Amino acid sequence: MGNPTEIMGLEPSQSRRDLEHQSLKSVLASASFDRSRSLSKLLNYICNKYFDNQTDEIKEYSIAVEALGRPADFDPKKDAIVRVEMHRLRKRLREYYSDRGGADPVRIALAEKGYVPEFIVSQREVALEEVTDTPLPANNTLQLPERTALAPREPEIIEPKGDSSKMWIWIAAGLVLIGVAVFAFRSNQQTGGPTPQEGAAIPATTNPGSGIEPSETRILAGRGPGTYTDPDGQVWEGDRGFRGGDAIPGRSDVIARGFDRNLFGGLREGRFEYLIPLKPGSYQMELFFAETMFGEGNPHGGGETSRQFAIRANGKMLIAGFDILADAGGPNFADSRVFKDLQPGPDGLLRVSFEPELGRHALVNAIRIRHSPPGCINPIRIVARPQAYRDVNGISWQADRYHQGGSQISRPTAPFGFDNAYVYQGERYGTFSYSIPVPPGRYAATLYFWEYWWGKGHPGEGGVGSRRFDVYCNFKPLLTDFDILRDSGPEQAVKRTFHGLTPNSQGKLVFAFDPKFNYALLNAIEILDESK
Fold first, then answer.
1. Residue 198 has what pLDDT?
2. Gap between the Cα atoms of 444 and 434, Å rounded
3. Which of 232, 270, 274, 472 is the most buried (most CB within 10 A)?
4. What is the rounded CA–CA span in Å between residue 142 and residue 152?
5. What is the dihedral of CA 274, 278, 282, 285, to 10 degrees?
6. Does residue 449 sit in helix, strand or coil?
7. Intra-chain end-to-end CA distance of the chain, in Å
8. What is the mean predicted confidence (pLDDT) over 80-101?
C-alpha cells in the first residue's frame, strides 16, 4: 500500500505525528471507548503528554491526580486505581485492534509495566491487500484461533505474517491466478463466458474435516483466506468467487440482535457480483448487512435513502432500492434478507449482482446459500438459549437470534413429560420482539411458553394472573391478555400455532411481546413455510 500516510487520506508532506494524532482520534471515536469516559480520558491524557514531549511526567501519581481525579494526597501504595485502570486500558486497546481498529495504519501500544504510549506503524493493511482481493485457494483449510475481542468466543481471520508467510502468499496467489486463467479459458471455449482479465468463479470444494457441505455455501465478504467455525458449529469461508468491488474492514461492534458478530467483520462494497457454483436444484439465500457508515453517529451521517442498491440473481431482480437503514430500523444494526427459489444457470453458476443506485456503493457482509424445497424456505426453529440445540427427534434448533430487547436466561430445569422438554429451558423475558426475515409467502408460527417462575411450588409462587401479556405479529394481535398458567396443563407448558402469517414490506415477520402484568416471555419459536 506504500507510504502509510496514504492509508488515512493524508498528504505525503504530513508527518508521522499527524498519523499518530489521527490514530488517537480513531480510537477515541470507536464504540468501545465512546462508552467508557474514564478510559477515554486516561488514554487522551497519556497520549497528549507524549505529543507534548512530556513523557517524563507520565507517572502513577500524575495520572491519578490529573487524569483520574484523585485528590492531591493520593498514595499509590494504598490505592491501586492507576494500575487497575491501565490494565483495563491495555485490554480495551487489544479488543479495539482485534476488531474495528485492525485496519488502522498506526496502533497505540502500552507495555505491560509501563505507562508511556508507543505508536507502531502496522503492516496489517499490506497483508490484507495482498490476500483479501485474491479468491480463496481451493485447498485452504486454515483454522482460526479464538479472538480476545468483544465476543470472546468469536475467532478472527489469521493474517499471514513473516517472510515465510509472504512466500506462501505469493505461491498461493500464483496458483490461484493460474487456476483462474485455466477456468476462464475453458469457460470461453464452452460457454462464451468472461475473459481471464474479468475473473471467474472458483469452484466450490469440500475440504476433509472442514464441515462444509457442497449443498451449503457460506462466505464472509471482504475477509481473507481461511475458515471460521461459528458458535453453532457452521464453517464459513473467506471471500471468494467475487468479481468487482472492494474488500473493506467491517466492524464487529454492531448491535448484533443475536447474530454472530464475526459475520460483520468485513464487507465487499461498490458494484460487484458473486459467481457461486451450485449443483442443480432449488436454493434459498440469506444475505447479511450492517450499515456502519451512514446514519446518526456514523462517519457519513445522513439517514434513510443515504445508500440504496439493487440485488439480482442470474439477472432476475430480487430487490430494488434496498436501504439497509430502513430495513434494519437504524444504523449499526445487524440485518439480513432471505430469498427463495434460486437456481444455478446453465453454466452451473448462481450470479448474485449488487448494483448501486443514486451513486452510492452497494455492500454485503456475508452470504449463506443452502438447498431448500421448491417454492419454500427451510423451517426456522429458534430456542431462547445461547447455544444451538438438537432435539430428541434429531431436529436442529438455532441459538437465540433476530431479537431486540428483553433478557435471555437459561433455567436450571425443564418441564417434565415432554419429548422436547429442553426446548423450553431457555427463555427470553421482558419487553422484546423478534424480527425474522422471510421471502413473500404465507407462514405458520408456533410459539413455545413455559412458566418456570410463577405457580405453586415454583420460585415466585403466585398463580393465575401472575403474568399476563399480549403478542402481535406485524401489529396484528395473536394473543391478548395471555396467561400461561391459565391456559397450560399441570406442567405449565403450552404452545400456540398461528397460520396464514405474511411478512411486512421489509420482508420480516415481526413478533412483538408486550407485557400487561409482569414480564412477557418466550421459550422457542418455529416458522414453517405454507406457501405451497
1. 28
2. 15
3. 274
4. 20
5. -30
6. strand
7. 53
8. 85
